[in-house]
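Board notes (copied after class):
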Amino acid sequence: MTARALHTIVVLCNAAMLLQLLCPCAGLSLDTVRDFLTREEDTIVFCLIERGKVPAQPASLRPRLPRRRPPPERLFRRALHPRVRGRPIQGAGRYQSLQEIPYFAYRVPFTLAPPYNFTTELYPAAAMVNVNDAIWSIYFNELLPLLAKNGNDGNYAVTVDSDLACLQTLSRRINYGRFVAEVKFRGDQLTYTSLIQAKDRDGLMKLLTSEVQEDVVKRRVERKATVFGQIITLDGPIETGVKNSSQAQANLKVDPAVVYKLYDQWVIPLTKQVEVEYLLHRLD
């Protein structure tokens, strides 16, 4: 009798798990997506503030042998490799969630954490679409020189940890375009299906683009950088002076213009690129 009862429980549990896998999550909506992306703005600004505390550390990044990877690549690829820095993170089950995509997925160790039944909002054939390679290149070659001053203070571990936090946060934010695309597809399946079947990249990009909303996001994140980057004293924040003046920027922990540029030239365009690639695989 006990064995039969246990068998029944196992069957019911398996059936419930199957239903969860087959049915899209009702919690995914434009509102939840916007809330997530808005909160990610806070995380990104604080990560940039942390990275700005230490210099670029060129001596610690430059390989001794010529004609190898660019200066940042050698140390940070080693540090970011799942078997080094990724071991404790992956061991805690970080990459079980589809919101997180590792930079080196081909050698991610097995997780030690118990399995968690994450929701399955994404279409399986398009779930792993990402632009991590582009994010990596832009971060080291374009963004980092704007954040960190030239210098070497020997705090290499802090530098590496800050860079890795920025990389993973940017990856999560930009690759979240998959969820954005899924929500928009569900909201207008007929229009998107016709464009997908025609492989019309330009049409998809035009349909996904809202210049008014993009401008709101860019101005909001610039404002957040101004607010979060203030130096606070017991008498209140230190006055930053006239907007965009050199003295004003000197009193901020991160340059709002850099954060605006980050979203304008990289975050928003790459997010839309992820959305288009996801949709092109949505009917596979």
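Comment from the instructor: The chain is about 60% helix and 0% strand. Residues 5-25, 62-73, 82-88 have pLDDT under 50 and may be disordered.
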